[in-house]
Every structure is written in C-alpha cells, then in structure tokens.
Amino acid sequence: MTEITSTTKILTGGVGKSEVAGTVTGLGLPGVEIVLSNDMDAAVQLRAGRADYFLGTCHTGAGASLGVLVGLLGAAACHTFGRSVPTAEQIDALLDEGKKVFGFAVDQIDAVAPALARAIAARTA
User: Are 90 and 102 in contact (CB under 8 A)?
Assistant: First the structure.
C-alpha cells in the first residue's frame, strides 16, 4: 500500500530569504518544503496552487516584503507583522482567516520564521 503524504510548500523572498530558509529548514518540520523565491515568481506559484505560503522579509517588514504580492493576490491573502513579533494565537488567527503571505522585518527572522513555520506545519499533519 502506498502512503500518501501531504507536503506544504513555503516560499521565501526578500532580503533575508536565505536566512528564513535556513531557519525553517533547521527546524526539521515534517511535511514542510522550503524554497527560495522572489515576489513575482511567488505570486505566480501561489495563484497556480504550486505553493502554499510565502514568507517575505525587508528592513521594516512593512512594505517591500509584500508589495507585489498584495498587488497581485490582494490584501485579504496577505499580512505584514512589520517589526512586531506575533504570538502563536495571532498567527493561528491569521491562518484561520486564510492568510497565505506574511511579511516581517529581517531582524525578526529568528523569532517570527520559526513561529510561522511551526503553525503552518501543525496544519499539514
């Protein structure tokens, strides 16, 4: 019997995309694939259903991390944390609302990326 496994594909983009990818990969979360991307390619992949989430970083977490994605996917699919660090409850609420695209400041990667990835992985199981 073949076992069917579900994999969630998370794209990373922005100035800290490699650091986000390394941080999330280092968590060893089962069912999570992390791929370096850019905002334009991410929008195409998300719209086509070839990716599930996007984690974007810039220096403030408030603009360049998500600008193109907000424009192409709509604000309803996107959320920026700016320079704040969300609680697990806030992340769960945003995922419950259907948010797929998240932006945050590059200096918050160590706190935000693992929290987002764990919450996403919990929904993959």
Answer: no
